[in-house]
């Protein structure tokens, strides 16, 4: 401890004064207030002297490695992958005008709320997930409620990716095998890609995911153009509450990447650059949702189905699902990765490889 105190005296910039309730001032190391600490600081290296030599010999994990464009790629892969596939059917339910208005307005709301989350993370650097934010807002009860909600939501999102993977494999193979088998294969593929310990390790996969969904959507739009007009296109639509509610929630789900934003920001080299990644995401996804919704609905009309890849002819449908496989799998990987970190979030296990994680060193 004497060595640690000496280091802090040599590096006074690593300390900051915080005003406690009642006007008292507490002096804390700045590293204590960041979820991963200052990984470039001598203090973080010094603290490792108190860790088991056996675990220390197995290596240190550095998490704050994301630059803003990699964060944007992760956010695009996580947000756009499945959400975009339901947009044409939303337009079929709501009509062209209501569909466009909701995509634009909910996109603006998503941008504003994403910015608020970014500012919240900068104000409370130790926040890593929704559970941490819930604890700040409502104490232990808030932590359990928001943490549990995030885990449940992400489990179901991962399940939706496994289901879409099942549909994709079943379509590509013309139902050549049992659906349960394809679901199992999809789950195993997603599990394998979650092995990297950091988001930086799957950032390049996210680029491939985004390219994959763009290519699949282009194939779909070309395909519906080749098939020609299949149903009536209406400006406005009269529908009951249940169908309208479902259509609106589909658009909300298409913008629902916010649940992972805290984890993305926590692994950025410069968390203050999150706004750049957010604006890149919102410009891209809002534009894509409008283009895909308008074009596919213009040709399919009331016959639009979800996922949108099923609106083409038989051959092009198989091609589109084949091209979309990377995004179906990788986006599920990102949600599973974030969910797993929430469950196992302690500084001890995040930074040090336990024996069970020797596999990561082999990779």
Automatic annotation (TrEMBL):
UniProt cross-references to InterPro entries, sorted A to Z: AA_transpt_TM
Taxonomy, superkingdom: Eukaryota
The answer to whether the entry has keyword Membrane is yes
- Kindly report the protein's main subcellular placement as a broad class: membrane
- Please list the residue ranges annotated as the Amino acid transporter transmembrane domain: 66-336
User: Keyword ATP-binding: yes or no?
Assistant: no
Q: Which UniProt keywords apply?
A: Membrane, Transmembrane, Transmembrane helix
Q: Where is this region: Disordered?
A: 1-26
The membrane-spanning stretches of this chain are 67-87, 93-117, 145-168, 174-195, 202-224, 244-266, 278-299, 319-340
Its annotated compartments are: Membrane
GO CC aspect terms: membrane
Pfam families in the cross-refs: Aa_trans
Bias kind Basic and acidic residues: ranges: 1-13
Q: Which family does it belong to?
A: Belongs to the amino acid/polyamine transporter 2 family.
The molecule here is called Amino acid transporter transmembrane domain-containing protein
User: Can you name the source organism?
Assistant: Hermanssonia centrifuga
